Amino acid sequence: MRQLETLAREAQSFADAPRQAAEQPVRWHGRGGAALSPDETEVARVMQICNACRYCEGFCAVFPAMTRRLEFGKADLNYLANLCHNCGACLHACQYAPPHEFAVNVPQAMAKVRLQTYTEYAFPAALGKLYRRNGLALSLATAAGLALFLALTVMLTGGLFHAPLAGDFYAVFPHNTLALMFGSVFGFAMLALGIGAARFWRDVSPGAASGAAVAEAAHDALRLRYLDGGHGKGCNNADDAFTLWRRRFHHFTFYGFMLCFAATCVATLYHYLLGQQAPYPFWSAPVLLGTAGGIGLLIGPAGLLWLNLKRHPLQGDAAQKPMDRGFIALLLLTSATGLALLAGRDTGAMALLLAVHLGVVMALFLTLPYGKFAHGIYRSAALLKWAIEKRQPDKLQLGAD
């Protein structure tokens, strides 16, 4: 047990050190020999204390992954931060949480490093930094600017108000024009996300993935397993009471988004394989899928915004709120304008409704790689890393002398 005793002494020294010393950058042995940031240093300090205590080991995957390490480099910290689901269980269970002098706050420390992850792995990096500072304003300004541009285009080419067109979107914007615009934007978003995810994956050095590891990671990601607080009762949000609503609202959001994406894919198949062009009747698969997805994207983001506004200040990073709310706002606007377009597609205002909806959707796609959507990518990668790692032998063997 000598290694564990050494670990406990190191944790005590971290906790007893003055805060100013804890915030000084330390060196890590990684790519480029870069220093840890103050936020990363804080996570390393907290993990040293948690590694000596281990009371929260059964709460989520972060703590078992932590116990496989005695030291925490930059890649380890990025991995653990994205493995954390910010459920808050450890904060309310921790005997060393504020106002204790150790000031252990795992959710907040992890949230700050996650925010760095979104910026550091963003491509191009300048856009990641811009969105980090002004997420909400940038999201709304981008949506408004694109919607205005498309509305002016419609006004100059045919007028915003017109005789009913029986829901024929292509009478306003030709099919090839829409395909080119959104294909380019979506392609850019996927490229940027792919580059960021590849960089993250390379840095965490996960090892070979077995089929069982991939299946487990997918299962945990799709179920949001670690938003149950480790006991099935849910997360903490405003206080120490448990609630499953954060998990439920995430499910509404994710599966609503996927239903909308499925509607687009089915409509594409209708167009190119079956030769059936839009508009489609309400009872067709694309419209039903899109309607269900739009409703999910109203309920989920609205609920997440409500929880975000009520969240305890210790459970999260205040600097991340503009990014959180920017993404939520775009999701809400996407669903609201989409449902409004469906309701008004047989009216003379369809062109205006279409321009506004397309502008919002394009803004959503453009900001996907830089906002909270990216956390789903990095968190899924971290879950896969954990599923791989847990199947490997633990090299520390702390139980042996």
Automatic annotation (TrEMBL):
SUPFAM superfamilies: 4Fe-4S ferredoxins (SSF54862), Respiratory nitrate reductase 1 gamma chain (SSF103501). The chain crosses the membrane at residues 136-158, 178-201, 252-273, 285-307, 327-344, 350-370. Keywords: Membrane, Transmembrane, Transmembrane helix. It comes from the Bacteria. The keyword Iron does not apply. Residues 10-35 are annotated as: Disordered. NCBIfam families: CitB (TIGR02484), PRK15033.1 (NF011607). This is Tricarballylate utilization protein B. It comes from Achromobacter insuavis AXX-A.
